[in-house]
Amino acid sequence: MDASVMMRRLADVIDAHGWDELPALLHDDFVCRYVHTGETFDGASWVRLNAEYPGFDHLVIEDCVATATRAAGRSHVTGYSGGELRHFEVATFITLRDGLIADMTEVWTDVNAVAPAGTRPGQLP
Fold first, then answer.
1. What is the chain's percent helix, strand, coil content, to nearest 5?
2. For 125, which of 31, 56, 98, 118 could close a Cys bridge (C-beta 3.0–4.6 Å)?
3. CATH no., domain 3-110
4. Three-state SS for 121?
């Protein structure tokens, strides 16, 4: 399986809440890094994090570019918090080894987040 097919398979499994299917997609040496929080997960802890995440609703992959062993994807994720539907965007980067995901990096952002004033060129504080 090439990396673009794996990225789409990963998204489909997560969207379907197929937590029991996730480990079969991960290499024994799997590592996931969350750039935005500095956290690192092995396969078991990453699957558990996804399975136990409160309020998760859907994940839809919106874009994917890939080579045979590496892929970058952009997804839209929704989840409930305090009874309100929240929207997130996530960039996911995977590297395959032996046809399985060995390395993953994710960067999450809240769609409603606003950059602090004065942080962009030409923007006044």
1. 20, 50, 30
2. 118
3. 3.10.450.50
4. coil
> Max alpha carbon distance in the chain (Å)?
51
Domain spans, the chain: 3-110
**Given this model, what pLDDT does residue 91 score?**
97
73 contacts 60 by C-beta, under 8 angstroms: no
> Angle CA(37)–CA(81)–CA(57) in degrees, nearest 5?
90
Task: Tell the residue number behind the tokens 């398979």, with chain if given.
Answer: 9
The pLDDT score that the predictor gives to residue 115 is 57
pLDDT in tens, 24-37: 999 999 999 999 89
User: Distance (Å, rounded) from C-alpha 15 to C-alpha 28?
Assistant: 23
Low-confidence ranges of the chain (pLDDT < 70): 113-125
